[in-house]
Amino acid sequence: MSIEKQKFQQLLFKVAFCTIACDGEIHEFEIKEMKRMGKSAAYFQGIDLSDELDNLLVTFKEKGQHIIDDLYAYLKATKLNTIQELLILEVAFRLAMADNVLVENEIKFIRFLRSHLALPDEIIRDRFGVVEYLFDKDYSQDIVKSETYSDLLSTISIPEVKEIESIDFSSLGDGK
User: Fold this and answer.
1) SS3 assignment, position 100
2) What values do phi and psi take at 37, rounded to 5?
C-alpha cells in the first residue's frame, strides 16, 4: 500500500511520539525540537496533532509499550519511498538527540526502526554520515531484529499517561 501525505504525517508523528517516549521520560527539549520541526518544515503542517495525540493516548492506554508493535506493523505493511524513509530516520535522530543524551532504549528503538525500512545503508551514510550504533550489526537480518525487539521490549519504559496528557502539542501542526 502506498501512503498519502496526511497518513505519512501521522506516521511521522507516531515515530516522533515513540522516540520521545521510549526512554521513559519526555523532556522539554524533545517537545521544543518537535515544535521547531513543525515550524521549519512541513513535517506536521496541516494536521491537528492534538487529535493525533488523543488517538495515540487511547492506543497507549490500551496497549502500553506494545504501541511500538503497531508502528512496526504499519511500517511493514506500507510502501514508503526513499525520501519518506529518510524523513522517518531524521525525525527519530533529531528527537533522540534533542536533550543531548542518547540512552540505550533510544538506540534500540532506532535500530529496530531502521530494520523496518528498506533504505540501503549507503543512502543513510550519505545523508547522515556514519551513525555508529546503526552500523555495528546487520539490523536487516531477522535474527538481529528478533534479538533487538525482545531486548527493547524487556527494557523499555514508557512515561505515565498523565505525563503525556499534560504536553501541549497543539502548535506543532499549524506553524505557530
Assistant:
1) coil
2) -65, -40
Residues 29, 7: Cα–Cα separation, whole Å: 26
- What pLDDT digit, counting tens, does each position of 59-96 carry? 777 777 778 888 888 898 899 999 999 999 999 999 99
Phi, psi of 79 (to 5 degrees): -90, 115
Look up residue 26 and give its three cell numbers: 519526555
Closest to 115 measured CA to CA, from 82, 149, 78: 149
pLDDT(57) > 90: no
Q: Which residues pair with 79 in a beta bridge?
A: 2
Residues 132 and 41: beta-carbon distance below 8 Å: no
Alpha helices in 22-141 (DSSP H): 28-40, 49-63, 67-77, 82-96, 104-115, 121-128
Q: pLDDT (tens digit, 9 = 90+) per residue, 99-109?
A: 888 888 888 88
44 in Cβ contact with 13 (< 8 Å): yes
Angle between helices 28-40 and 5-21 (to 10 degrees): 160
Distance CA 96, CA 80 (A): 22
Q: Are 30 and 95 in contact (CB under 8 A)?
A: yes
